[in-house]
Amino acid sequence: MSRLLIVSNRLPVTVSIMDGETHVLPSMGGLATGLRGPHERTGGLWIGWPGQAAPASAKRRAELTQLLAAHRTVPVWLTRSEVTHFYEDVSNGAIWPLFHYLIDQVPLRVEHWDVYEAANAHFAEAVVAQYRPGDRIWVHDYQLMLLPALLRRRLPDARIGFFLHIPFPSDEVFATMPARDAVLRGLLGADLVGFHTPAYARHFAESVRRILRMPAEPDAVVMEGRTVRVGVFPMGVDAAAYEERAARPEVDAQLADLALGTAPGHDVALFVGVDRLDYTKGIPRRLLAFEQLLVRHPELRERVRLIQVAVPSRTAVGAYQKFRHELDALVGRINGAFGTPRWTPVHYLYRSVPDAQLLALYRAARVMLVTPVRDGMNLVAKEFVACRADEDGVLVLSEFVGAAAELTDALCVNPYDVDGAAATYYRALTMPRDERQARMRTLRARVQSYDVHAWADSFLAALEETRRAAASE
Predict the structure, then answer these.
(1) Domain CATH number, residue 218
(2) How far apart are CA 160 and CA 148, in angstroms?
(3) Among candidates 375, 376, 394, which has minimal Cα distance to 384?
């Protein structure tokens, strides 16, 4: 079996120092979980940034490289300045908001594009150094959109796949990107470019036609006599693992603790939101819709509660710091207006929560609110469904997330319509048990049948098919 070289901005491991000793610990993210099988089965390598700036000492770099090699991971060393400009300023400060349609968050001038190019070149050097004839290369996400073309120049016969984990915007929005030509040509260095939804694939093809003036369809682009396949591969979660972990005793204990937070004699229904603290996640509009629910239905006061988990994210980016302060003020206003001595309507947790507590929240939620203003897929929705072995709970899902194309038995909302969202929250809360369970059974069937392992297998099978198709042309 040919090796798989996985390339992503971050390695699937974290390097930490405890008691003076360096340890390499596996990460628990969805990408790490989904690609662990192919990584192990093929004896392949994972290439990426190890999460810290390059040590000044060459000896220390060599020591860390050796430790990482034991996990079949290869570090791409970046300086602190490169991390700041490549990752924070360009990738997250400019590309992220533009691809999520939030053009007002894009800087007036996108600086340090040359550092983004240099960082992609560093990754290319690392891949070329490890490549053997016959290896397959799978590049991931918006930080590395120039990499496929860089690899194609150096490794013309390699099988190269690319997957974008965020939305690809409409051609009207994408056309505003100063480096639009370079990004499209970078992606077209791959043999297969994958997206979460048919809409993203269509937007990509339309951008190629409009900007590069090349023949392009939603499933293929012809570039200089070479056919680049375009595919749709909606990412899933490890549904079986989530269900098993959600049934553990420590999660039951957390459920009991949540019940203790209920005032005696009151059945308090929980609305739950779990997000990174990011302006794309729609948290302020979600809070305003919850506030409208309390205004329209005063009988629900002291009968419902919203638990909102906001995991700190990109704290060095100025826009995120400002967003956090605005959100703090909004939560305070709502609690000040509606709270009573025995009831706080919004419990706001600005921190990561332990796994058992997170799974308990999924199991306890009467209504799960997944209402970003834009999101590539959103795996929280699928994690919630996977945890609900009781076949209960209602998923309220933004129509602007990739998961909405699959999870059609969720209640779909327009997060920009605060009044409409409030009405949907009430419908979810008052939905009869039979309907809740029927919807959840359908949702669970989808999440279980197309999980993260099926996602990885289907992409790699399609990448292999490009080899056979090229041979027959």
Answers:
(1) 3.40.50.2000
(2) 7
(3) 394
Residue whose entry in the numeric block shows the structure tokens 């120049």: 153
Q: In the prediction, which pLDDT does 470 show?
A: 66
Active site residues: 165, 375
Query: Residue 30: which of 457, 405, 382, 462 has the closest Cα?
Result: 382
Minimal CA–CA distance to 359: which of 274, 235, 425, 281? 274
Asked if residue 257 and residue 191 are part of one domain, the reply reads: no
Whether 443 contacts 385, CB under 8 Å: yes
Show the DSSP H helices in 42-177 as ranges: 58-69, 80-82, 96-99, 113-130, 147-154, 171-174
Distance (Å, whole) CA 49 – CA 55: 13
Report the relative pairing of strands 13-18 and 21-26 from DSSP bridges.
antiparallel
Residue 206 is which amino acid?
E
For position 264, what pLDDT does the model report? 47
Cα separation, 434 vs 391, in Å, equals 10
User: Does one domain contain both 200 and 245?
Assistant: no
Residue 40 has pLDDT above 90, yes or no: no
Per cent of the chain over pLDDT 90 is 82
The pairing of strands 226-232 and 73-75 is unpaired
Phi, psi (deg, nearest 5) at residue 308: -110, 115
Confidence category of residue 473, pLDDT binned at 50, 70, 90: low
Average pLDDT for residues 273-299, to the nearest whole number? 97
Measure the CA–CA gap between 284 and 370, rounded to whole angstroms.
12
331 and 419 housed in the same domain: yes
Q: How far apart are CA 108 and CA 211, in angstroms?
A: 22
Q: How many domains does the chain have?
A: 2
Neighbours of 350 (CB within 10 A): 14
Q: What's the pLDDT score for residue 262? A: 56
Query: How far apart are alpha carbons 169 and 215 in whole angstroms?
Result: 19
Residue 413 parent element (H or E): strand 411-413
For 445, residues 6+ apart whose C-beta sits below 8 A from its C-beta are: none
Query: Residue 117 sits in which domain range?
Result: 4-235+453-472
Answer yes or no: do 244 and 166 share one domain: no
Which residues pair with residue 18 across a beta bridge? 21
Q: Please report the pLDDT score of residue 56 as a whole number.
A: 75
Which region holds residue 311: left if phi is over 0, alpha if psi is between -120 and 50, else beta?
A: beta
Q: Does 372 lie in the same domain as 326?
A: yes
